[in-house]
Amino acid sequence: xxxxxxxxxxxxxxxxxxxxxxxxxxxxxxxxxxxxxxxxxxxxxxxxxxxxxxxxxxxxxxxxxxxxxxxxxxxxxxxxxxxxxxxxxxxxxxxxxxxxxxxxxxxxxxxxxxxxxxxxxxxxxxxxxxxxxx
Length: 134
Ligand SMILES: [Cu+2]
Fold this sequence. Notes:
Helices cover about 15% and strands about 45% of the residues. By secondary structure, it is mostly beta strands. About 20% of the residues are buried. Copper (II) ion (CU) binds next to strand 5. The site of copper (II) ion (CU) has 7 residues, from strand 5.
């Protein structure tokens, strides 16, 4: 009995550790970086896999980039508009063209139906656009 309880505790802690290692991150730019527009944004993903729009395989999805917004509750649909960008072909980078100013960029991973995997699968950074390349 005691051994069973210990084993299930181990299994639980292993499962929660595995969950914690799932994350999205910005490979570029760095948090707080000053950039000239247009600039490249590269998305990182750990513990889950990229799949194209419509693929509902568990543990997969696509990136969303939210400009001056915030992470969405788990299950919430990511809107489609000019500040909520979808990368439903499985893209892992994009180029942003923004007027000079301060912005937050939020990377939000979502499933094949654009439903958020929650704030734990998001990452927010700040960037300052200081100029426009001619
Ligand atoms: Cu989407």
